[in-house]
Model the fold of this input.
Amino acid sequence: MPEKRKIALFDTTLRDGGQTRGVHFSVEDKIKLTQELDEMGFEYIEGGWPGSNPKDIKFFQTMKTIPLKYAKLTSFSSTRLKETDPAKDAILAELLKAETSVFTIFGKTWDMHVYESLNTTLEENLAMIHSTISYLKPRGDEVVYDAEHFFDGYRANPEYAIKTIQAAADAGADWIVLCDTNGGSLPRQIQEAVSAAKAAVDKKLGIHTHDDGDLSLANTIAAVELGCTMVQGTINGLGERCGNANLCSAIGALSLKLDYETLKAEKIARLTYLSHLVSELSNKPHQDSLPYVGERAFTHKGGIHVSAIRKNPKLYEHIPPELVGNARYIPVSDQAGKSNILEKARELGMKVEDAHAKSIVAKVKELEASGYHFEGADASFELLTDMVTERRKEYFTVHGFRIHSWENDNGEIWSEATIKVSVPGNQNWQHTVGEGAGPVEAMDRALHKALEVFYPQLADIRLTDFKVRILDEEAGTKAITRVLITSTDGKRHWGTVGVSENIIEASWRALTESIEYKLKKDEEENNGK
Done:
């Protein structure tokens, strides 16, 4: 059996990814992600541009005390300034202070950039590339040369573009990385330029693509299949403008579909975790639509699809989700068929007979037609299923509630909720009052205050999310409102939904179902289910 061709993974999430609008990695974030990438088995981790800001300076200083098991930490910089001795260049001096074993240097390939950005001659740009790499090569283990705008440069002036990478190769660069910096190249253009580069330099080649044309992964694969053995990119495709090539997708495609060696199989199975970690560190919601690692990557909503995957997942899944640490998800909606209901019930640990599935489908479609949405409200779906199958238990009865609001001495609007409840088998009713900064908070406090007398474990519940959606905006104050609540008790997380023309009523329904679900799951747990 032929040996798999090894692809070196070069992660630039901390540098290129950190240039994403709204993303600001702290030093602690950068250290944590560096350690995780190292543990995963990435060959190169680009930490940043030393000297460009205090944060990167501190990061490289700190990393001198933190050994890496596998990865090589690389610092990033440009070629020397024009008409400057490399030994006297302030930018290169800062680069050397980082004391990384690998230096990544970018230089200009496109003649237009030489003239308009550097304001120098083509000959001086070649000298800048050659002298910079010649200076750095004895001072580190490796030099990675990023040929910025290589593909645009090759289309504009192919002879000069090739001369720039030859200058880097002649100076001793270990890697020549071809960069689609503007992200607008097409696969055919990538193939043509990579073939020319391969014929011109006897060096290891890499590929660095951006996603401005929605082709970063396709362009990366095209380059690899022509011989590039380094892939640069970011986790989740973070980066300038539309982002860089997403390494999660590149790893999935190269290792699981094209039989190249990137990470070990057990590390690829942690890709979804890594993707979520980067979203958390970048303080961004995780993108559900990400291939391989997004929640929607293996979500099946249509009834025909669900029916098929219950027979054989390959019918509608290009890979088993477990290979990348993801999971199959079957939402319940007005697109659902009997197969969705049966599969969702199985996922939730419920037993639903075929005879009941049809009735549940009909009820779901009826409720969604009136504004309900069960895709993010598994708890409400479970309670609905219990109702249709006549297994829903009554844990408490609300005999009425009243809310009024007023303006306090500080000019703030405050709300008070009064509620009367009882529980089966107990003759003592609770009539309580709760206050809050708004009617929902007041209702929540009053309900808990009343029910915790009977069910002390309800004190563990807290709301983690509260979403309000107006479904028919043109209806004005009579518009249907959908409220989706996410709750937790520290062990479980669950979602409930309420719909009404009255936002208070919609919120009330979601709140009461959240409490009912908690009591149901606690009872099942206590009974050993």
